[in-house]
Amino acid sequence: MRVVVLGGVLSTGLGVGVLGEGRPARLGGARTAEGVVAAVRDRLRRGELELPLAGVDTVARWSGLAALGRVDLALARLAEGHTDAVAVLAEAGRAVVAGALYGVWASRSGGVGARLVDGRVDGTVRFCSGAGGLDRALVVALDDTGAARLVEVDLAGPGITSDPASWQAIGMDASDSADVRFDRVVPVATVGPPGWYTDRKGFLLGGGGVAAVWLGGAAGVLDDVFDLLQDKADEHQLAHLGALHAVVTSAATHLEHTARLVDADTATEVHLATCRAVVEHAAWEVVDRVPRAVGPTPLSRDRAFAQRLADLQVYVRQHHAERDLAALGRAVLAAR
Questions:
Q1: N or C: which end of the chain has fewer CB within 10 A?
Q2: Any idea which fold 102-197 has?
């Protein structure tokens, strides 16, 4: 994927091109989970998911993820999961299976999650994006000592079932982020020692990549807003456009700044947490301001537009709001 940096801003078309310049093509036709998986596989075949690793060329990596988010957030969710899995395996010195579509399933939401019993994966994992369409997954499971272990699982093997009814979302509906049940599944391999998945340097860098997707999703919504208000915006709508342009451009600039710190090996946990908070704030400004700017008509008569806004609202909640902000405040005070 060719990625360029323009005007000091990641190449999402923000800040350098006013009114949505340089936008990528949208997904065609009705969006379904099957169609999103097919679109991700098509990009995988064409080599478009072969992004540089964070720390090698983080600007290019995060620009590529932002561009995917600008196309479609459900597509970007699966693509980001695949690229994250590839990066995790690279960090562990392990090869990927050629042509396989990967995901990372690590949630322990609601008190449930995977565990290792006699070396086998057992239990239910929530929010498994691409539950019905991936080939392999890196799954976080607790061993009998309570330590988190990362295991690679072949999803075509026995003992793995997804529950489509568990994913009732309107936003991010086509990401198929369902519950997956593992019934004493034999893993392909164990990746890294106990606790390695969250202790490794790449864990925080992966969170920056997710923020890049949020930024791309915000840009995708603004593309539509610019089209809707072109040549007919009143003063109040123009004020919203100006505010949104400023906050999203600022977030893009901050994301690029953080990426450059990563590449210089000077980024700290505070830098990366601040980056996520800045992008989350920008995305939430989009979610809050856009309905006030455009009114009810496109929200009720343009399904694709309403879907993109709903997707952004759900996806950005990977940031844990005040919990993450409190952790950031604690880290900032500790660093003084």
A1: C
A2: Butyryl-CoA Dehydrogenase, subunit A; domain 2 (2.40.110)
